[in-house]
Amino acid sequence: MDFSDSPEEATFRSDARSWLDANATLRDGSEKAQDHFMARDADEVARARDWQARKAEAGWAGLTWPRAFGGRDATPIEQVIWNQEEGRYAVPPNAFLIGIGLVGPTVMMHGTEAQKAAVLPRALTGEDIWCQLFSEPAAGSDLAGIRTRARRDGDDWVISGQKVWTSGAHYSSHGILLARTDPQVPKHKGLTMFLVDMSDPAIETRPIRQISGGASFNEVFIDDLRVPDSARLGGESEGWKVALTTLMNERFSISVGRASGGARAEELIALATRVERNGRPAIEDGEVRSRIADFVARQRGLEFTSYRVMTSLSRGEAPGEESSIGKLLLGKLRQEMGAFGMELAGTAAGISVKAGDDTARWRNEYLTAPGNRIAGGSDEIQRTIIGERILGLPPDIRVDKSAPFSEL
Amino acid sequence: MDFSDSPEEATFRSDARSWLDANATLRDGSEKAQDHFMARDADEVARARDWQARKAEAGWAGLTWPRAFGGRDATPIEQVIWNQEEGRYAVPPNAFLIGIGLVGPTVMMHGTEAQKAAVLPRALTGEDIWCQLFSEPAAGSDLAGIRTRARRDGDDWVISGQKVWTSGAHYSSHGILLARTDPQVPKHKGLTMFLVDMSDPAIETRPIRQISGGASFNEVFIDDLRVPDSARLGGESEGWKVALTTLMNERFSISVGRASGGARAEELIALATRVERNGRPAIEDGEVRSRIADFVARQRGLEFTSYRVMTSLSRGEAPGEESSIGKLLLGKLRQEMGAFGMELAGTAAGISVKAGDDTARWRNEYLTAPGNRIAGGSDEIQRTIIGERILGLPPDIRVDKSAPFSEL
Amino acid sequence: MNFGFSEEQDTIRETLARMLGDHATLKSAHNRLDGADGFDTATWSVLADGGWLGLAISEAEGGAGMGAVELAILAEEIGRSLAAVPYLPALCMAVPALQSAGTQDQRTSLLPGIAKGRTIIATALAEGGGLAPDTVSAKVVQDRLSGQKAPVTFGAEATHALVAATDEEGTPRLYLADLSGSGVTIGALDPIDRTRPAARIDFDNAPVELLPGSDPAAIRRLLDGAAVLAAFEQIGLAERALALTTDYAGERHAFGRAIGGFQAVKHRLADMFAKIELARSNAFFGAWALASGDSRLPEAAAVARLTALDAVQFATEESIQLHGGIGFTWAADPHLFLRRGWQLKAELGTAAIWRERLLGHLATPLRAAS
Amino acid sequence: MNFGFSEEQDTIRETLARMLGDHATLKSAHNRLDGADGFDTATWSVLADGGWLGLAISEAEGGAGMGAVELAILAEEIGRSLAAVPYLPALCMAVPALQSAGTQDQRTSLLPGIAKGRTIIATALAEGGGLAPDTVSAKVVQDRLSGQKAPVTFGAEATHALVAATDEEGTPRLYLADLSGSGVTIGALDPIDRTRPAARIDFDNAPVELLPGSDPAAIRRLLDGAAVLAAFEQIGLAERALALTTDYAGERHAFGRAIGGFQAVKHRLADMFAKIELARSNAFFGAWALASGDSRLPEAAAVARLTALDAVQFATEESIQLHGGIGFTWAADPHLFLRRGWQLKAELGTAAIWRERLLGHLATPLRAAS
Lengths: 408, 408, 370, 370
What we know:
CATH architecture of the largest domain in chain C: Up-down Bundle
Oligomer: heterotetramer
Number of strands of chain A: 10
Number of domains of chain A: 3
GO cellular component, one term (chains A, B): plasma membrane
InterPro entries (chains A, B): Acyl-CoA_Oxase/DH_mid-dom, Acyl-CoA_Oxase/DH_mid-dom_sf, AcylCo_DH-like_C, AcylCo_DH/oxidase_C, AcylCoA_DH/ox_N, AcylCoA_DH/ox_N_sf, AcylCoA_DH/oxidase_NM_dom_sf, Mycobact_Acyl-CoA_DH
Radius of gyration of chain A: 23 Å
CATH topology of the largest domain in chain A: Butyryl-CoA Dehydrogenase, subunit A, domain 3
Order of helices and strands of chain A: HHHHHEEEEEEEEHHEEHHHH
Shape of chain C: globular
CATH superfamily of the largest domain in chain C: Butyryl-CoA Dehydrogenase, subunit A, domain 3
Strand order of the largest sheet of chain A: 1-4-5-8
Family (chains A, B): Belongs to the acyl-CoA dehydrogenase family.
CATH architecture of the largest domain in chain A: Up-down Bundle
Protein name (chains A, B): Acyl-CoA dehydrogenase
CATH class of the largest domain in chain A: Mainly Alpha
Largest interface: A-C, 60 and 54 residues
Structural class of chain C: alpha+beta
CATH topology of the largest domain in chain C: Butyryl-CoA Dehydrogenase, subunit A, domain 3
Number of helices of chain A: 11
Number of domains of chain C: 3
Cofactor (chains A, B): FAD
Distance between the termini of chain A: 52 Å
Strand content of chain C: 5-15%
Distance between the termini of chain C: 48 Å
Helix content of chain A: 40-55%
CATH class of the largest domain in chain C: Mainly Alpha
């Protein structure tokens, strides 16, 4: 066991750092908290595009893409190293994660030459920003249940329906859209994938406000959007297969991505040192100590789990079984820490009584965490995945696999 | 809201107390801990029989049975009051609970006149002791999955198979036995109920040792037991319906029965006051206080829940929805309290270091509790019952309801 | 044995449920979250007109002369409807305080107005963290109060406040302050539940009147009674959260089935149910102890509050979870209940406080820091 | 980044797994529970013959010269097999103590015998509740030890004991006692896990030898290392409990299906898996910190132990639960794992102790009682 880079990894890291040093400035802690990949406004989008163009020019964009498509043919661990290094600098959010991490590889595998030429270079340089139009109000955990319809009309397709939970849709130029083209066959079989232009007036995007007050997602309404057949990605009724490529790359992007934000358990120590519980410093209360120790132990475990994932990547292997637990355990941990932080504030749990107290921070943590337990595969879906794919338990009984979608 | 008896209830209580005063002595705390309904040895069985005979003679046995069968036509709340009052006296365990509470009502509803005459009087006086031969190794939560076969042979039936979890089988004179008589129909349809003589040499009883070291249950092996058709209780292939009568009465017996034993949460306060944690009296540790307060609150909740059940009975209503939660919550509470009691003993959790310390008590509590979470309907079955019967959620998908048992 | 409600009480519940269901809708709660007035004066008027605000005030003083069990029923229905009304501070705390510790004059001058809905008395016991009588730094000298109280629920909407402050001997007592009087500055706080507006009140030599019967023991009794009644409000809201999640699980389909048919969902809902019923059993005992003046009230109040806090948090968090994506959107209902649950935690103190109150009775109090 | 095992280490694991699987069967564990000898001398001999007992002893002192990571692998496989051998006290505590705090003479005279399996050193740190160096009342005066130690795992089977006792200045130190010497009385205790026999040892002026390098800090380091290695043993046993429950859930049918297809069962097993993998990640970091001498060892040891304790308790309790009726019978396997889990908790202290060790590093230590 060894935490150091291999010689090849060390070289890559040093190259990355040299370029970053010359092109960006290190964070100094004064930066506003920001999401790692969501831009908040037009200005941030513009700055993100500019930074992406510079990376692309220097060969630091699309790291894991093949050189033939302008990438660097980098290994997954090199992507991790880049993410670590770039994370040390004050750079704009990476609004291109979906384009480069998900759409690019899907187009490379399933696209026509014309599609590759149209999509890949502009995704790499950040000229185009992509979003993923998969989930629907009635198709969340059960993605294959989507109802957005695409009907043939001459050489065109006409698409209508509603998408939801679309990150970044409001500033994206393009979207990869899964639609049902044949409702008379079983649900997984009648789907087709399309590449669409988000600026088309047939597409309307509305932000979704979350319980935390933020709005990272959108609803997208599609009303008779007309696209040529050349916008179809992959074969007709082959959409599920194409979507699986996208989803596999999504999982990979997450496993090499920057660790999720959120509070550190140690911050609760600081809070408990400042506040009182039952007339004494809260940090002297055995229950406070017990809860915090438990949080620290679980958070460390998640951190070290990511080291195990990186070890697999470093060895050129796929992330192992351990990679599945992070998603399951993180949301609940954040939710419990948020609740505990709010409670430590005393009677006034949840009400900010003094300006500058910690209530707002922990309240936001608490109200953000439920999203972690749901988005990207709920806790319940994760447990099913672990149970079936890792432990090999019998699958849930599926009543919907063979019936025509129209009869479900 | 009022905890006092109604005038009728008060009269009943006073009558019961007068008779008990004249026929038994009050507990003085020196009695050995004993199970409320399991006799431990032949001597205890003999004393239990004697006590039952005296109760029967005076009209205090089979309280809720109709007078026509020697009962008192008592209301459920009167049964509760009797149980409360009898519980104050040093009397032998009630080994007749199954006979009077379960078998009697089932025979009254489904038996022939000859069966009623043969079974009821002797069950009432304690001459016969009954056990319930339902569960099998492959039929626990899924009771209808039983495999014990009863085959017609002329006018007789020949029964072979294995039963398990049979309380009191080793001292019972008779058993009510569910067997499969037709494997060619769906599982619930091919069952028939029989009344059997436990002294038949074709029946062998072996105690099952539990992880706590105790043995309250038995395995019962039945090897070509021959019974006449007059031993059949209810129609051929009507066994499931007959069994449901028994099970309904079992639930009722439990809801009016004496509260389950087990440790009181307050005992943990006493323990925590005696032992140290991290160099201080454990009772001063916030986590210890927090855990104990939680245990007290949950245990009180279960106790007061039983008051709600009694209120329904007192009003002549069936126990309401609240009665279903006790079974679900009790086992886990006992398991947690047992574990915590062991941990309070410090490093030596689970090892009795000093004679007379509390380790053995809490270890026994901890090792007994898993049985509470499983026997009589596991936690998981209870949750399904609450979800489906109380909350009205859709049933689990059943693949076994219509296929012939032989093809499952 | 009678550990349930009478037919008259069941009728009261039905009437209230209908009335609150009509007036205090979830839609109106959403509007308040989005900036509408945090106090639902319309519902408060309806309650006043129906005579509900004087439920536990004697007939001589303008009320209906009922008791704690009826107050508990009202509390549960308020919880179920999430009505944005100052029920808990005004009716479950201020009224009993006046009744048990006030003068005849104070009662006569205030109780009729409360029953009519004209007088609203907020309760100012907290000072950031901790609860009176254990944590009080506001002081009264010569009938003048100085100090800061926060959070005070409905502090900006109330006409009066019942304030915990120390008297000239340093003993915590309760005082009545006219909030329109001099020396009172009220600032809005940002509560997690905007249907329960909260304020900070600064008193600077504000004239106040002592409730002569109030001493630390009386304040504790007051909190015990309030905790029991709040437990009913908590149970009402948790049960509504369970009900709407059960409905959703029966309607929402995934993988070709209603999601309530999946054990992961079904068993979670069963766990919610079990926690709520456990809390209800404790709350019943608390209501009985409160109504009958039983000496076990402190213990009963603590266990009622502890199990209610647990039931509410579990039910509301898992209500969001089982709603899936829709559950964590602002426009959906589940977070309304989560917010009210936290607000009720804030108003009377977290489990940490009530565990100590329980153990203080069963075992020894925690030793003070040396 | 290399946070896993090398190929050589994987080979060691496979060899050990095969060997222990052949010799330390669950059937033999059942026999011990039913009264057979609690020490599996046959497996101990096989380990000695294979050179495994000297794994982390230098080649010069009769061992194989490997390190902490290899010890961790052995620990995990011991846990998985439930082998009834004094691995933890003798190899993970006594050997490192001799190596770090013993004299050259002590090492030369004892380590080769340990590697050969002839010398077995028990570790006597506990005195009922609490762990050395924080709780020590045994005393050494002029090289003579008096006091009582309990529980001492394999105390009755060991040739020597490493005993925590205070020196003449009152400082906790470690001493080596020959258990066949004078002044030593050994009594059997009743452990929850009879495959892990425990004893009480009374020392009455028993001659002992100081490990000169031992001081309170050294004792703490020793415990940290042992906690990391024990975490691997805990993970091994939890994983075996998960595996046998997963197998059972795949075979056992109810309602016409393997019960592992029901989400109530499937999701519980997934939770077991997640807790075990979380503990494993912490244990990996602990092993690295132990092997590399990293200063974060105390923190790493504490988090490894805390998550391992949690994973073991959850996995073993739910293993019994998911086995249904058969699960709480004596003859079934699940309780073997539950018992070993508690035994490992007893040997190195409960979560309460390790939470304080963790917070002592991250925050302030808990103030002593005044």
